[in-house]
Amino acid sequence: MRRSSILIISFFLFLACNHNTYKQGKVLYESNCAQCHMPDGSGVGDLYPALSQLGPDYNYSLISCYIINGKKSENSILEMVAIKGLSDIEINNIINYVRSEMNDLEGEVSIADTRKQIPECVQ
Asked: What is the rounded average pLDDT of the residues 83-99?
């Protein structure tokens, strides 16, 4: 009994210490996206859209296409360049970091949803 109590307490302490579920997503965002979309996702006017204001109705799996292909906005003279060399899991972690940490949304885009979207992104 005592051993199981220790294991349960250890598990909850582990969860409390590791509250940032999307650490890899954060690191990847900071190294690939933050210089344009800002560290807090606030963006820069029409040049770089705010990622922190996408909301619950936004189709977050579309972000994978923007990461893979880049994006040209009709409102901007600048083009988002494609980010090459990221795995599907890394892309999914960026998406969930933006969704969870910047938009304060519960739930996540599953890796299955991202993997389903990626072939549709190929140009």
From this structure: 95
DSSP of 51-117: STT--TTS-GGGHHHHHHH-EE-TT-SSEEPP--S--HHHHHHHHHHIIIIIT---S---HHHHHHH
Q: Which tokens go with 86?
A: 């990221």
Q: What is the pLDDT of residue 66?
A: 93
Distance CA 110, CA 44 (A): 29
Tell me what the pLDDT averaged over the chain comes to.
Answer: 85
How many CB atoms neighbour CB 63 within 10 A?
Answer: 25
Long-range contacts of residues 24-27, Cβ cutoff 8 Å, at least 24 apart = 24/90, 24/93, 25/93, 25/94, 25/95, 25/96, 25/97, 25/98, 25/101, 26/97, 26/101
pTM: 0.79
Please list the residues that pair with 79 across neighbouring strands: 72
Taken in order of first residue, the domains within the chain and their CATH numbers are: 22-121 (1.10.760.10)
